[in-house]
Design brief:
single chain, about 425 residues, mainly alpha, 2 domains, two-stranded antiparallel ribbon
């Protein structure tokens, strides 16, 4: 144990009025008072400090149409649903919760930090509202499941047609990759999305099909809108950029395959101390993803995914070097935990201010920001005296997020060069 750890434990002992130092001599683990940890509201809905975005304007009337769709669906329900409407309390609660969730998602969309996150919230609002409306239609009018299944099949068919005829227009390869990847992913959500399994309760089964059909329509609507808005933002004579995206994706994925073959072995169960957990967690993330363009939703998605994974590989190297140099160990004071957390936030903010393509960097840093948000939530759950090892989940996320953020802009710079030279 470091001198700082002993002093921190001594302070904890005096404040708590217990004999922690004596226990330390007997091999007990040092503790930190939860009160001294970063002040995080355990009831607050944690949101990442950086949110996803897309470099194309989403028209206000598109948002209005989606909000009106939610309002129309919710208007079909009696408010509130009572026992006289649906006698089964469990079913009534499920439909009421869905309607409430739809309203919450609409409110979240109004306060969303980016247009893309607002779009995602409204997608969820539409799905939840349709779940409630479809379930009520069964109870009120005896509606069957077939109309929703037909609607879903039509949405899938339309999405396939859009994908088959899709043109990768663009002049700036970085912006084109960012926009086209979002469209590819939206279409894939429609085409490859799972359909409901049979439920014991017929009403809930139909409600799930209503949700599935609406989700497919929402994602398809948004894919079409992004495509239209992006195309409208380009000059009339702009050409296709598909070959450039494909060539860049192949180059990046070749690097991914090479780095994947050099990954360190996973730590054994007996070795899982804090440094091993850091390496194990990030190694698992870096090893998860596509390795060939045929496995991607399209060439643009392949570029974005490869950029993300290459950043993780470099972050892995950075962390391994820290471990080899003896610079990464379990924090033993609240002050050290606060410093690790603050460093993660600073690294994420700094990453977006560096390099030639902050929007490309954002696609990587967003995942790091979610790690930090998750770490904050975990940290806020602790009460009383906390053994320092119990803080490992949060510390691991802070440390990994910092390493990813510090490598993100450099990897994005290389990806930009590959796109421009393809």
């Amino acid at each position: 144990m470091t001198r700082r750890g002993v002093l921190a434990l001594a302070g904890t002992t005096l404040l708590a009025g217990c004999n922690g130092l004596a226990e330390l001599g007997n091999g007990a683990e040092p503790t930190i008072r939860a009160y001294d940890l970063p002040d995080i509201d355990p009831d607050e809905d944690r949101q990442p400090v950086v949110s996803e975005s897309v470099p194309v304007e989403i028209a206000p009337d598109h948002f209005d149409a989606a909000r009106n769709r939610v309002a129309t669906l919710l208007a079909e329900l009696p408010t509130p649903l009572g026992p006289e409407d649906i006698p089964n309390g469990h079913i009534r609660e499920r439909l009421s919760d869905a309607a409430s969730n739809a309203t919450t998602e609409l409110n979240d969309a109004r306060d969303a930090p980016t247009e893309l996150t607002a779009l995602s919230s409204i997608q969820r609002a539409r799905s939840e509202a349709r779940y409630a409306a479809a379930g009520w239609a069964v109870a009120n009018r005896g509606l069957s499941v077939e109309p929703f299944q037909r609607e879903h099949r039509q949405a899938v068919s339309d999405a396939r047609s859009v994908r088959d005829d899709y043109e990768y227009v663009g002049s700036d390869p970085v912006r084109a990759a960012l926009v086209h990847s979002r469209i590819e992913d939206l279409l894939a959500r429609v085409i490859d999305g799972q359909t409901p399994r049979a439920e014991e309760n017929f009403l809930l089964h139909v409600a799930e099909w209503g949700e599935t059909a609406e989700s497919a329509r929402a994602h398809l609507d948004d894919a079409r809108h992004l495509d239209e808005q992006f195309t409208a933002s380009l000059s009339a004579e702009v050409g296709t950029i598909e070959e450039r995206l494909t060539e860049a994706a192949e180059t990046l994925l070749a690097d991914v395959r090479s780095r994947s073959s050099e990954l360190p072995p996973e730590p054994t169960a007996e070795e899982w101390d804090l440094p091993d957990r850091v390496i194990g967690d990030l190694r698992q993330d870096a090893d998860y993803g596509i390795s060939r363009i045929d496995d991607a939703n399209g060439p643009a998605s392949a570029v974005i995914d490869a950029n993300r994974r290459l950043t993780q590989f470099r972050a892995l190297d950075r962390l391994q070097q820290r471990i080899d140099d003896g610079e990464l160990s379990r924090p033993e004071s609240a002050e050290a935990v606060r410093e690790i957390r603050s460093t993660a936030y600073d690294a994420i903010t700094a990453a977006l201010a560096e390099g030639p393509a902050p929007e490309l960097t954002r696609t990587v840093v967003t995942s790091a920001a979610w790690r930090v948000a998750n770490a904050d939530w975990e940290l806020a759950q602790h009460e009383g005296e906390v053994a320092v090892s119990h803080l490992d989940p949060s510390v691991v996320d802070y440390v990994i997020a910092t390493a990813i953020a510090r490598e993100a802009s450099a990897v994005s710079r290389q990806t930009v060069e590959i796109l421009e030279n393809a």
